[in-house]
Amino acid sequence: MMRIVVVLFALLLTACETNPPAPVIEPATSKPKPSEAKPTEAKAATAKDWRPDSHIVKKGDTLFGIGLEYGIDYKEIAAANNIIAPYPINIGQKLDLISFKTKATAPAEANKTADDVVVTPLKIESSVTGDKTVAETKPAPSGVTPVLSEPKAVRAPYSKEAFNRATPATTSATTKPADAKSVEAKPSDTHSTDDESIAWAWPTQGKVTAGFNEVSNKGIDIAGKTGQAVNAASAGKVIYSGSDLRGYGKLVIVKHNRTYLSVYAHNSEIVVKEGQNVVAGQKIAEMGITDSNTTKLHFEIRRLGKSVDPAKYLTQN
What's the CA gap between 171 and 127, in Å, rounded? Predict the structure, then answer.
């Protein structure tokens, strides 16, 4: 009897060892851990264009002054509003400016890549059987334009010999990507950051006698000698050359891109013409005293027509 009890006890221990208790699993929570949280994409920042859609002409306005105020070539304003030389404007006249305002690229277009190009399936009728087959389509690799290189469809009269010569190549088409080296990259039309990437150089040598002030001095004054060279601070196009703006004397305005232009005032002589392209460091005028009490260059940098402190741009170089 005692032996039977020992055997039963041994069997019970064996059963406990082969069937261990089930592990405890903590219930999953609905919130992910901080490290697993998906980051939110930051929205691309774009510079706001402060300029209005139109300008109402007031007493004392000239087309040249309005162009400088908004950073636009006065001839372009004239063309957009059907104004011809000598560019007369009337008090109360409404001038359209909306076509000159900078437009940021739409997010969908800015993020679009060549991989997003959709190739439409091609249906080609067999020259032998008349069956229609659908072309195999694959997304083109980045920067590569898909080119349909084969097959060349040829119609032949039905015959037993033509039927026997038929191969899969005559009843299907495959789009093949062009060689990446043969694809010429096209520059983007809208990149606001490119307009900010300008290498500025000092327009002349001399001591800065007056700094920038938003109210009393919209640029800096650089002292020098009459006839001293005044150079373009960066590459651009001369959009004004003359003395029509009161207080500036003989004046040159260079437009560098859609955002920036530079102003060179009080010159004794101007050596460039409107519409002329200039490079950085090219002589555009000679220092003088026109509409000024002292010989100096009054130099301005304007961003979307608004004056900014030139010293902050020139000291970068």
Answer: 8
Are the C-beta atoms of 274 and 240 separated by less than 8 Å?
yes
* CA 281 to each of CA 192, 205, 232, 290, 310: distance values in angstroms, whole numbers, following the listed order: 25, 12, 5, 23, 16
Report yes or no on whether pTM surpasses 0.70.
Answer: no
Give per-residue pLDDT as tens, 176-221: 444 434 333 333 333 334 678 899 999 999 999 999 998 889 999 9
Confidence band, pLDDT 50/70/90 cuts, at residue 229: very high
Query: Is it true that domain 196-314 has CATH number 2.70.70.10?
Result: yes
Domain ranges of the chain: 54-100, 196-314
**Cβ contact 314:202 at 8 Å:** yes
Its sign, for the CA torsion 23, 26, 27, 28, is negative
Distance CA 293, CA 58 (A): 29
